[in-house]
Write a structure and sequence with these properties.
By secondary structure, this protein is an alpha+beta fold. It has a single domain, classed as START domain (Alpha-D-Glucose-1,6-Bisphosphate, Chain A, domain 4). The chain is 24% helix and 41% strand. Strands 1, 2, 3, 4, 5, 6, 7 and 8 form an eight-stranded antiparallel β-sheet that branches. Helix 1 crosses helix 2. The radius of gyration is 14 Å and the shape is globular.
């Protein structure tokens, strides 16, 4: 099934693609900007589990990891009030060299219909992707 209405966020970062990619794949760096607890194994089939605010749990699995260019993982809520089942959506993160820095493009696919779900994810990604 093709998602014809993905949520897309872009941010320009004054950092190399390699440094940006390290914040997407290294536990301690990723934890600095993304959540309160984090368990990651960034390789195809590896786990992505995060508690972003202390009372919820996001669970997914890595599908694609191409250093330092691209990461794709499934995502959804194992615990919390967001009605998006664990592993039911797909997050694609592309790391694109641009000038002296990097364009990070995040595409979140297969979000279920409903403005509340989309706006919650829109707010969350905007909050975490402040350049």
């Amino acid at each position: 099934m093709i998602d014809d209405n993905p949520l897309v966020k872009e941010v320009y970062l004054d950092a190399s693609p390699e440094l940006v990619f390290s914040y997407l794949t290294e536990q301690e760096k990723m934890l600095r900007w993304l959540g309160l607890t984090l368990e990651i194994d960034p390789r195809p089939g590896g786990i992505f589990r995060m508690d972003p605010i202390g009372r919820e749990l996001i669970l997914g699995e890595y599908l694609e990891v191409i250093p330092p260019r691209r990461i794709v993982f499934t995502c959804g809520w194992e615990r919390g009030n967001i009605k998006v089942p664990a592993g039911s959506t797909i997050v694609e993160i592309d790391v694109v060299p641009e000038g002296d820095g990097t364009l990070l493009r995040l595409t979140h696919r297969n979000l279920p219909p409903g403005e509340d779900v989309r706006s919650t994810h829109d707010f969350g990604w905007s909050h975490h992707l402040v350049g």
